[in-house]
Design goal:
With 352 residues, the chain is of the alpha+beta class. Helix content is 40%, strand content 9%. The longest helix has 33 residues, at 91-123. It is elongated. The two termini are 43 Å apart.
């Protein structure tokens, strides 16, 4: 039987014994689904695209890379460990490949059966006692199509130029293994800047809405800041030596500088150590300001007044776009410090 449709996917073999290679379904932006073989690397799913066309790869590994980009192997972006490319195939894509093979085989089988009757009809064309009519060839069923979506957070690694997408916060580039949390937070700052600009464009008659938008932007900074610190801490906790006792569950420790410092002291690291006294004071004030805006409708209380000399009890805490962006910039300094810390420890990561 001639396997015309199946042979489109042939990568080896001959005759009725073929080795097939099925291309992975792609998202609208040309990425493929990848799924970490590490069942503890939540949420496991990520997307892998191509390297951006104008990116010049370095000739040797940079100090932040743990894997030569563009070579066999994939780094789990959530746990940072390396495994073979085929072990990252998404279960849905395995099912999709089977559907593609089944569709091609059925098309080849239908064509073969129709061909058999065509041959029989030709051989008996002059037979007065036996006539075979085959009719028109059946129309093949449409090839299966598989919907794939791009994820919310899309990144381009600044070390190797690889395009990829992740859920929530990932720690490492899936191609070169470089830490990427600074990219995540920088993207948050870009979105916050847009929020601040939109709020600033509202006229005085819409000051209540503008205040609400500013409040959301301010909250987004702290949410991203806290989530990043927590993600890095939990990653380091999973990689600590087995004989070290587990610490207490993490709650909102990273909404407080001293409690956050105490957590990272377990690893002899201070994420706030690079900040000046003034920057640390601004960070402390804004963390407390978030509490007032989120839980006290923006009205200053006694605890907030301890940190802000100009605050008056019972009055609305002002929100200024420049102050929010300053808060974000100081947060970026802390995240950059965390990022560098991860990079310094990066070469100790192993396989899944």
């Amino acid at each position: 039987m001639h396997l015309r449709n199946l042979e489109k996917y042939k990568t080896g073999g001959s005759g009725n014994s073929l080795t097939l290679g099925i291309p992975l379904p792609k998202t609208p932006d040309g990425r493929v689904y990848r799924y970490s073989p590490n069942e503890n690397a939540h949420p496991r799913l990520f997307l892998l695209g191509d390297r951006v066309s104008d990116f010049a790869l370095p000739k040797t590994l940079t100090s932040r890379m743990t894997h030569p980009p563009g070579t066999p192997g994939t780094v789990c972006p959530y746990s940072g460990v390396l495994n073979d490319d085929e072990n990252f195939t998404h279960p849905d894509d395995l099912g999709a490949a089977k559907e593609i093979i089944a569709h091609a085989f059925h098309a080849d089988a239908a064509a073969a059966i129709h061909g058999m009757f065509d041959d029989l009809a030709r051989k008996n064309a002059g037979n007065k006692f036996f006539e075979v009519k085959t009719g028109a060839r059946p129309s093949p069923k449409p090839a299966p199509r598989f919907a794939r979506n791009d994820l919310l957070r899309e990144l381009v690694c600044d070390e190797c130029g690889r395009d990829y997408g992740v859920y929530a916060i990932s720690l490492f580039c899936p191609d070169c293994g470089a830490p990427n949390i600074h990219l995540h937070f920088a993207r948050e700052i870009a979105l916050v800047r847009e929020q601040v600009e939109l709020a600033g464009q509202l006229g005085s008659e819409r000051h209540e809405l503008a205040y609400r938008m500013m409040g959301n932007a301010h909250e987004d900074v702290l949410t991203a800041f806290e989530a990043t610190l927590k993600t890095v801490y939990l990653y380091k906790e999973t990689t600590r030596l087995p004989h070290v006792a587990a610490t207490k569950p993490v709650t909102n420790d990273f909404q407080n500088i001293e409690r956050g410092r105490k957590r990272f002291a377990e690893f002899d690291f201070d994420p706030f150590g690079t900040l000046t006294a003034d920057a640390l004071a601004v960070l402390t004030l804004n963390i407390q300001k978030r509490h007032v805006i989120g839980h006290n409708l923006g009205v200053a209380d006694a605890k907030f007044a301890e940190h802000a000399a100009e605050a008056r009890l019972g009055e609305t805490v002002p929100l200024v776009g420049d102050d929010i962006l300053q808060f974000a910039a100081i947060g970026q300094l802390v995240i950059d410090s965390l990022d560098g810390w991860l990079a310094a420890a990066g070469r100790g990561r192993g396989g899944l």
